[in-house]
Specification:
Layout (H helix, E strand, L loop, with lengths): L10 H25 L4 H4 L2 H27 L4 H9 L5 H21 L1 H24 L1
Amino acid sequence: MKYNEKFFKTTKFAEAQSWVFAALGGASLAFFFAMLSASDQMLHATSVKFFAEPLFCISLISSSTFAFIIKISGDDAELIHRLNCSSFFGWIPVIAIWSFLFGTLAVLCAFSIALAIPAIASLAFSYFAFVTAIKKG
């Protein structure tokens, strides 16, 4: 499959982003709801306290903000593409995704390092597979 930059300028892509970022925001909020009933051990775990909580907070705000902007723009593909390519605002979706992924990794670390190792490996594999696919076109 050839990399097609035109796809990123379509309404279909804007709609997909709307769903993805709404889901990331919802999952980040669910993390905080889950913390309401978490055990003391989980509440005081270093990876949760110092990594997962701030990362899910960042993900919640950035994901929800971006999903909201997409929705109020009426899924205007041209506007969303300009925002994605913006040197300043373009970081919002990147921050939303990576903060969610690293927050999830931090939660897995709280349970077990044995869970974190395959998670890190699959994240690295997915990233390099994507980059390789894009470069090969």
